[in-house]
Amino acid sequence: MAIRTIPVRRAGNRDNLVLGGDREMVMFAGLLAGTLIFSAHDMKAAIFGAAVWIGAVQLFRVMAKADPKMRFVYLRQRRYRQYYAPRSTPFRTNGPAEEAQYR
Questions:
Q1: Inter-residue contact 25 to 69 (CB < 8 Å)
Q2: 8 Å CB contact between 31 and 23
Q3: 88 CB-near residues (< 8 Å, 6+ apart)
Q4: Tell me, what's the pLDDT at 80?
Q5: 8-state DSSP, 56
Q6: Of 14, 17, 57, 82, which has the fewest CB atoms closer than 10 Å, so is most exposed?
């Protein structure tokens, strides 16, 4: 008896992208640009806000093209410790002399 295969359709397995970039980041950049534009009531602020939003959308498109889940990878990487002390076993606690030796 052969193993039955079920195809996974692309339509049910897509990333949430808006304007080609990550949905939440594009919408948040639009919110910040809109807040800048409408709170300043100045033509310079409107031009700057529109330029910031267009630049952010372009950056988010490049990020999503490289990896649609790059935001989650970056946030997970930020949680990692900056330095892991070398230890022979996870149960050994290095003293201050060993910690200073390997920095």
A1: no
A2: no
A3: none
A4: 84
A5: H
A6: 82
Q: What is residue 89's predicted lDDT score, i.e. its pLDDT?
A: 67
Cα-only R_g, the chain = 23
Beta strands (DSSP E) in the chain are 17-18, 21-22
**From start to end of 11-90, where are the E strands?**
17-18, 21-22
Q: How many CB atoms lie within 10 A of CB 53?
A: 19
The CA-based angle 42-34-64, given to 5 degrees, is: 135
Angle at 94 between CA 93 and CA 95, to 5 degrees: 115
Q: How many CB atoms lie within 10 A of CB 10?
A: 7
pTM summary value? 0.66
More confident: 63 or 94? 63
**Burial classification of residue 22, based on how many CB atoms lie within 10 Å of its CB (0-12 exposed, 13-18 middle, 19 or more buried):** buried
Domain parsing of the chain, residue ranges? 16-79
Q: What one-letter code names the amino acid at 88? A: S
